[in-house]
Amino acid sequence: MIFRIALLMSVLGLAACETVEGFGQDVQSGGQAISDAANEIQDDL
Hints:
This protein is mostly helical. Helix content is about 95%, strand content about 0%.
């Protein structure tokens, strides 16, 4: 029983890590888009 609980917690922990990693990549992509837009506006000035 304890083994099953430990296994379940491990699987959930790994799933959460991948979710956080994906969220970090999304934030990074959004930041890059903002940076690119700011550079384009600066070039137009």
